[in-house]
Automatic annotation (TrEMBL):
The chain crosses the membrane at residues 60-79, 100-120, 192-217. The keyword Transmembrane helix applies. It comes from Rangifer tarandus platyrhynchus. The keyword Membrane applies. Residues 144-274 form the Fatty acid hydroxylase domain. This is Fatty acid hydroxylase domain-containing protein.
Length: 293
């Protein structure tokens, strides 16, 4: 009964979204995007698209999304939005982080990316323009991937903090107490594999077109670089997403090495009470702010 009800709620919701979509004006970028997509299909093999295409998408987006946070350190006006003001970014840390990132990206992630082509072939995942899902279906599937990744991340990340194993793997990610965007993927190779698995579970379950791989990479990178940015920017549109954890949530985790284990949403930390120290800290800060007014 409950399953039938949820199916009917889901189909009504998708009908409503389809209706809204039909009212929207034609996307002016659709035609150039279609041409570019078809050009790619006509000039490159599926292996090249899945492997080198995915590598390029990941590298370009990673450093592009890190760029605003990187530039903020040179803009005095942005200092007031830095969460841990007493720990500014240093060249030494950023350079060290950059070198480890390149190693992780090309020696750990690239071999994994090479599996993309075989995955799409095995599950007959299409590449063509005609079967590409509409933007709202992509968004819904990315949300599904985020919920799955967040759940995986919460439990495995919490496990990596266990006192018996913390120093062997996860300690590397916690090397910088005040995080900065580039640190998002600064981790021990084993952590890249363990926590990275959460990224692929959603893909395995929900992928219906190769574009979902790149859409989900985009969403995941925006999220993880935002929460590691070290800045809490007012009017950040990501903070409008219900239950979105945000930069203060993860910054607290890096500052204190405890609590706030989830990557994207706040519900697991709420359910297990692992956000209690974060909440107490926020209450304390509010009182301090009131007194100073
Ligand atoms: Zn982190
Ligand atoms: Zn941690």
């Amino acid at each position: 009964m409950a399953t039938n009800e949820s199916i009917s709620i889901f189909s009504s919701a998708s009908l409503a979204v389809e209706y809204v979509d039909s009212l929207l004006p034609e996307n002016p970028l659709q035609e150039p995007f279609k041409n570019a997509w078809n050009y790619m299909l006509n000039n490159y093999t599926k292996f090249q698209i899945a492997t080198w295409g995915s590598l390029i998408v990941h590298e370009v987006l990673y450093f592009l999304f890190c760029l605003p946070g990187f530039l903020f350190q040179f803009i005095p006006y942005m200092k007031k939005y830095k969460i841990q003001k007493d720990k500014p970014e240093t060249w030494e840390n950023q350079w060290k982080c950059f070198k480890v990132l390149l190693f992780n990206h090309f020696c750990i992630q690239l071999p994994l990316i090479c599996g993309t082509y075989y995955f799409t072939e095995y599950f007959s995942i299409p590449y063509d323009w005609e079967t590409m899902p509409r933007w709202y279906m992509l968004l819904a599937r990315c949300f599904g991937c985020a919920v799955i990744e967040d759940t995986w991340h919460y439990f495995l990340h919490r496990l990596l903090h266990h006192k018996r194993i913390y120093k062997y793997i996860h300690k590397i990610h916690h090397e910088f107490q005040a995080p900065f965007g580039m640190e998002a993927e600064y981790a021990h190779p084993l952590e890249t594999i363990i926590l990275g698995t959460g990224f692929f579970i959603g893909i395995m379950l929900l992928c219906d077109h190769v574009i979902l791989l790149w859409a989900w990479v985009t969403v995941r990178l925006i999220e993880t670089i935002d929460v590691h940015s070290g800045y809490d920017i007012p009017l950040n549109p990501l903070n409008l997403i219900p239950f979105y954890a945000g930069s203060r949530h993860h910054d607290f985790h890096h500052m204190n090495f405890i609590g706030n284990y989830a990557s994207t949403f706040t519900w697991w930390d709420r359910i297990f009470g692992t956000d209690s120290q974060f909440n107490a800290y926020n209450e304390k800060m509010k009182k301090v702010e009131k007194k100073s007014e």
